[in-house]
Write a structure and sequence with these properties.
The chain is built from 4 helices and no strands. The protein is mainly alpha-helical and 69 residues long. The longest helix is centred in the last third of the chain and has 18 residues. The protein is globular.
Length: 69
């Protein structure tokens, strides 16, 4: 919900931080949310924000491939 709120208010940097937190918590992130955060990361000149997006994407892809217990 916080990610959705950040996107709705156009808070790109905060949305990227919340994307990372959502992925770390195992939350499902909608395609539109990924797309928004991708645009923010690509438009940013801040390498740390770009890396944050990339790391969240890697973590999300790894979580999808974990075997279920």
């Amino acid at each position: 919900m916080l990610l959705t709120r950040s996107i709705a208010f156009g808070h790109g940097r905060l949305a990227l931080l919340r994307l990372d937190l959502a992925v770390a918590a195992g939350a499902l992130v909608a395609h539109e949310q990924w797309a928004y955060c991708s645009r923010v990361a690509l438009a940013s000149q801040d390498i740390k924000l770009q890396d944050l997006y990339r790391l969240a994407a890697v973590r999300a892809s790894q979580q999808r491939h974990l075997p279920t217990a």
